Amino acid sequence: LKNKNAQDSINSDDIPSDYVEILKDYSERLISWPQFKDLAYTEITSGMLQILLKALLKIDMKMLKQYIKRILDESFCTNNDIESAEHSGKLPDVFMSKPAIMLFETMIETAIPKHYTQIYAKCFKGRIRALAILKSTNFAVQKLLMHCKEKVEFEELFDELSNHFEEIISAGNTGVILALAQTCKRLAAKQANFVQVKRITEFPINCQILYFSTELNQSLTLRRSGRETK
Predict the structure, then answer these.
(1) Whole-angstrom distance, CA of residue 137 vs CA of residue 96
(2) DSSP state of 73
(3) In angstroms, what is the C-alpha Rg of the chain?
(4) pLDDT tens digits, one per residue of 60-92
(5) DSSP codes, 137-178
(6) pLDDT tens digits, 179-196
(7) Is 108 exposed, middle or buried (0-12, 13-18, 19+ CB in 10 A)?
(8) pLDDT of residue 202
(9) Which run of H or E residues covers position 7?
(10) Residue 51 near residue 7 (C-beta atoms within 8 A)
(11) CA 109, CA 64: separation in Å to the nearest integer?
(12) Which helix H or strand E contains 57, and what residues bound it?
């Protein structure tokens, strides 16, 4: 099976109980592999880790946390990687590798709130605009927005993106704007700001963004009407 098909089956079907212990044993052995930190950067092993993380989400949260922590500490955005990126003005290595980016997206999907915060603070914060306009990394930004659960973190994300809507749209990455609108609605945060930015920039929008923008506008109108009638 191709990686995508295998991942889809993990998402939709329960793991047979006969294989749970085998999977746990396999995951314990793999995490001790001497070259573990390099697995994220090749297509086959990255795909394997993506499937494993989604499986562990269902059967072993403790092991899932260990995997995410180790990948984050040893493979993605290490201290040396961050220092090198800052000196060179480039993005960390994880964002330069398609297999690593795919694994990163799965980590965002499966991370507990604590690890989500670490992922955001360590790898994304201060780089959101650059990542949102690149074809190779804008989907990771979308995942980050879609799985954000804390208003404070989302407000920081929004502020990093709000002055760059036209640039993001010009790059063809409308999914970032849509994810932003959806998260505004889901967390009931920055709704007025989104509507205001949309009006100011007058960027071309697709139907989905228009739909969520209209919903946010209607929601704000209802709130104001409610306050006025009290």
Answers:
(1) 9
(2) I
(3) 20
(4) 999 999 999 999 999 998 888 888 888 888 899
(5) THHHHHHHHHT---HHHHHHHHHHHGGGHHHHHHTT-HHHHH
(6) 998 999 899 999 888 877
(7) buried
(8) 55
(9) helix 3-12
(10) yes
(11) 12
(12) helix 43-59
